[in-house]
């Protein structure tokens, strides 16, 4: 919970600083050197990207991260070559799936059990959302934007496609959009599918090739949870430090001995990863309750 509160206040402070500094572009320019291209240029890129997506398939893009947020409750799943992680932070407990074990911690006591990755059921969920994204790309977007973002790390071009409200599995999906990060040749190595449900639930799914993939956020979840359990005295570093010294950070995480938890935590046979909203709770997650 404290991580989400800290993130909220960080965002608020950032907004205040930007407002206080009166950061603005000159007439005809955009802040931070960004550039928005014409509709004609955006459509040309859009058609090129759609043609490339027509040749792609989920089996070749089976790396993904899933983030669901609602009322200070979050579900995060990361499937990368470097780390495979399930993370849930609710109002009472935190859950971590890592290396074949599910852990739960409420700030005082901890529980765990053996649990396979397949029990998360995230692979089938991600494959279904890939199909949803492809369905959107087969429609005419209501808005498209192609931008150059020089301060972005990695690919510095972004194509954003926005669509009308859609329905999927009987659930209304509001403000759906697909965002592609591109290089100067309009090649992309991943994209983000975004939508909202109900009054405040937001879902973001990033797709990318599994081979060679990594996630700094997944590493932070492992590290932070281990620190709370007392498995490492070193706290999670700043993101910039994490980016700059990958070897040291990998070494710290690989050196965490999660098997030590079994010496003092309770083994709980019915421990379950909380079912994310809209997830199929009959297909592998044994009956957890979201948000607890």
Biggest beta sheet attributes: 14 strands, mixed
Strand residues, percent: 25-35%
Structural class: alpha+beta
Average pLDDT confidence is 86
Q: What's the alpha carbon Rg, rounded to whole Å?
A: 20 Å
Tell me about this structure.
- With 292 residues, the protein is an alpha+beta fold.
- The chain has a domain at 63-124 and 212-258.
- Helix content is 27%, strand content 29%.
- The chain has 6 helices and 14 strands.
- It has helices spanning 2-20, 39-53, 122-137, 216-229, 239-244, 246-254; strands spanning 35-36, 63-70, 73-79, 84-89, 94-98, 101-105, 110-114, 143-148, 157-162, 166-168, 171-182, 188-197, 201-208, 266-267.
- Strands 1, 2, 3, 4, 5, 6, 7, 8, 9, 10, 11, 12, 13 and 14 form a 14-stranded mixed sheet that branches.
- A hairpin with a 2-residue loop joins strand 5 and strand 6.
- The longest helix is centred in the N-terminal third of the chain and has 19 residues, at 2-20.
- The model is unreliable at 5-28 and 282-292 (pLDDT under 50).
